[in-house]
């Protein structure tokens, strides 16, 4: 349980870095966590949210890249 709490603190620290504009550093921290524990759900989720947000930002910036849904 102590390891889980330490990892949770690491993930939250990485998210704080991302949210404060230090995105590459925060992503690096999440990737380090996943190297040590590839099944870390919290790190996977936060990394997925980050990349999803990045993709959504691209689509909002460049609407012509969005697929047309009929």
What does this protein structure show overall?
The relative contact order is 0.12. The protein has helices at 2-19, 23-36, 41-61. It is globular, with a radius of gyration of 15 Å. Helix content is 76%, strand content 0%. The chain is built from 3 helices and no strands. With 70 residues, the protein is an all-alpha fold.
**SS-based structural class?**
mainly alpha
Share of residues in helices: over 70%
- Beginning-to-end CA distance, first to last residue: 49 Å
Number of DSSP strand runs: 0
Poorly predicted spans: 61-66
Largest sheet report: none
Average per-residue pLDDT, rounded, comes to 82
- Elements, N to C (H/E): HHH
Computed CA radius of gyration, to the nearest angstrom: 15 Å
Number of H- or I-type helical stretches: 3
> What's the overall geometry?
globular
**What proportion of the residues form beta strands (DSSP E)?**
under 5%
